Each structure stands twice: as C-alpha cells, then as structure tokens.
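Retro notes
What went well: the complex prediction finally ran end to end.
Inputs used:
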Amino acid sequence: GEDVEQSLFLSVREGDSSVINCTYTDSSSTYLYWYKQEPGAGLQLLTYIFSNMDMKQDQRLTVLLNKKDKHLSLRIADTQTGDSAIYFCADLLYGQNFVFGPGTRLSVLP
Amino acid sequence: ETGVTQSPTHLIKTRGQQVTLRCSSQSGHNTVSWYQQALGQGPQFIFQYYREEENGRGNFPPRFSGLQFPNYSSELNVNALELDDSALYLCASSSGTGFYEQYFGPGTRLTVT
C-alpha cells in the first residue's frame, strides 16, 4: 500500500522560513494536500496541488512537487508563533483513497 | 455558513460495547468522510458517504459501519469495541464525490477501557 513519510519534528526561529518535507510511494496520486492541526482541534486545509503541477503559491505558503522523486514540500515564509502546530501531508490516490503522513510538529521559537 | 460539527466531544466506553458518533456536514456539502486518528499518528480513512451511499472504504473491519441521512448528516457506528479503538474520530465534509476540498470537524475523542 501507499506510504507517506514525514520527519516528525521541526524547530525554527520566528521570522525565518520553515520547510516541511513529505515523501510518498505511489505514483497514482491525483492531488497532494497539506493540513494543519492545532492542539485539540480538527484538521484545517491549508493548500493542495494537482499532481501535474510543480509549484503552487498561496500568500506565505509555497508548495513544491517533484513527481520524479515523489517528494512534496511546504514552505512557510516569515514563520510566526501562531504557525506552531502539526502539519500533515496527504495523498489522494485514484480519487478514492486518502492517505495521511504521520505529521510534522513545527515549533516556532521566539 | 455553518462549519462541520461533531457530537459528542468526548466519550468513554467499555470494551465490547457499541458506540454511535454523529457529524453534521458543512452547509452545501453532500459528502461525508470519516477518519480515525490514534494518538501521535495521522488520520486513517474509514469510509466515505455520498448522497446516502457508501462511496469508498479504507482498511477497517465490518464492525465499523455508517449511515448518511437525507440532510447529509452522518453517523459512525462501532460495534464490539476494542481497546485499540481509542482514538480521535474525525469527520470531514466536501461537495461531490472524492476528497478535493474537505473541511474537518473538531473530532470526537473516544476512550475504550
């Protein structure tokens, strides 16, 4: 089955850029997603990218997709303390099965 | 516009019991998906309902079942609860089949003792 992997922890200083990485194994992805989860809360959709795109920018967020290496990244510019959360990447396979990674806990230090 | 709501917020059940969790979809959405999120892990897809029919299922046993009602709200039922069923159960709503823009509720925390 599909495996979606992420590094578990990332610490950055306030004002710096954060880059959260994700790798996946199945080449039949249609869309790839980034979600944010704050403590005790559900998941908030941040952005998503269609599998035939290389890059998508949305305000402070930049998503890069390397299909050859099956690598997805989320860059957050000018990271703020309010960005501290767990970030999940997720892979939509064949439009039918949604597979999440284990999540990356982002800590923003003042 | 009303977001996705879930009830109850927390629930404690005993092994072997049955539980029903509820979800109201966001206004205008006709699809509901359910996920199980164990502590420290990413959510795992249980199943999806579109216009009252099951429209896809993850790797969960038949004791996990669901319903969707004409107003597109949904229930998740779990029979014969096991200790490993302890988790946060999330529902997400979207428009149409598939998962393209899903909006999640806050979840129901189920503890099985």
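What we learned: The first strand of chain A starts at residue 4 and ends at 6.
What to try next: split runs per interface for comparison.
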